[in-house]
Amino acid sequence: MRAVRVPKFGGPDVLEIVDNLPRPVPGAEDVLVRTQVAGVNYIDTYHRTGAYLMDCPFTLGIEGGGIIEQIGPDVTDILVGDRVTYCGVPGSYAEWIVVPARQVVAVPQNMDILVATAAMVQGLTAQYLCRSSYQLNCNSSVLIHAGAGGVGRLAIQIAHLLGATIFTTASNPTKMEIARQAGAQHVINYTEQDFVDYINSHTSGKGVDVVLDSVGKTTFHDSLKCLRPRGLLCLFGQSSGAVGPIDPQILNEAGSVFLTRPTLADYALTREELLGRCAELHEWIDSGQLSVRIDRTLSLSQAAEAHQALEARETMGKVLLLTE
Questions:
Q1: Cut 0.85: pTM above it
Q2: Are residues 110 and 147 in the same domain?
Q3: Domain co-membership, 96 together with 159
Q4: Nearest 10 degrees: Cα torsion 123, 125, 129, 135
Q5: Residues 112 and 129 in one domain
Q6: Rounded distance, CA 168 to CA 185, Å?
Q7: In whole angstroms, what separates CA 193 from the centre of its chain?
Q8: Distances in whole angstroms, Cα of residue 72 to Cα of each of 76, 101, 275
Q9: Which of 120, 103, 107, 85 minimizes the C-alpha distance to 29?
Q10: Is 279 helix (H, G, I), strand (E, B) or coil?
Q11: Is beta strand 186-189 parallel, antiparallel or unpaired with respect to 165-170?
């Protein structure tokens, strides 16, 4: 089969297209998915560079969608021919992948598989951040960094659905407009204005309840300054680099605030939890309350181009790789 492989850690140029890998065989509790689309996520760049260590060589990607071609003998609730999506399973940049049956999610009959796949990692992340890491409501205020990005735009829409007051950051007028259309009431061009000053001036110095920070190194300390006493900083990414070691005393100085570094896997610990979160996402999408923006679709052979665009912050929505 054909797949995108990482033979050694490095830049996008290290990615290789391999045509002669053996097709995987599902175990007793697994399914074989013929991949139609693979999602590109920022974590893929961490795997490629070695920021998150993997054993080289390996097939890249953790998210995809396609058709069930084979099921293991112990699989009872999934049928050959079903359309499914999955996430958190390594090796999605490939024509076939074996996925534990407990981790696949059926695609609703009237939903495009591209939309369903694009809603997995980014949509589930936005959902758990707004619904579980911090339970946003009509009395909440939130700062969402990178508001025009994949997770950022979805999180803004969900926060808006829940009635929260939303502050967000973006780097140019086009991205600012995307964030406004998603539902953000306060959009800050961080290249021209200090977001800490803006939030302090628009909250009478009180700060926001929660900051959703996917940027990391360049925003972390200023994000703390935006919080109200006993507020929460959700650091769920590091697009600008990893945050260095910190003295816990800074949480005291910021107002006895809380810090969490969540991962999607810990918010989908059981199949029931995964299906529950997906059901809510699918309901929002089906009703038109949540819009999934696909920035571009590329072929597997263009995986390096996809990574370059992602790391250059050129994307405003989901990037997908098509296998056909």
A1: yes
A2: no
A3: no
A4: 50
A5: no
A6: 8
A7: 27
A8: 9, 9, 20
A9: 103
A10: helix
A11: parallel
The secondary structure element, H or E, covering residue 32 is strand 30-40
Quick one: 181 and 194 in the same domain?
yes
Between the alpha carbon of residue 251 and those of residues 144, 206, 231, 256, 285, the distances in Å are 19, 16, 10, 5, 37
Overall size of the chain counted in residues? 324
The domain of 45 spans 3-119+292-322
Question: What stretch of H or E contains 186?
Answer: strand 186-189
What residue type is 176 in one-letter code? M
pLDDT tens digit at each of 324 positions of the chain: 999 999 999 999 999 999 999 999 999 999 999 999 999 998 999 999 999 999 999 999 999 999 999 999 999 999 999 999 999 999 999 999 999 999 999 999 999 999 999 999 999 999 999 999 999 999 999 999 999 989 999 999 999 999 999 999 999 999 999 999 999 999 999 999 999 999 999 999 999 999 999 999 999 999 999 999 999 999 999 889 999 999 999 999 999 999 999 999 999 999 999 999 999 999 999 999 999 999 999 999 999 999 999 999 888 889 999 997
Report the CATH number at residue 211: 3.40.50.720
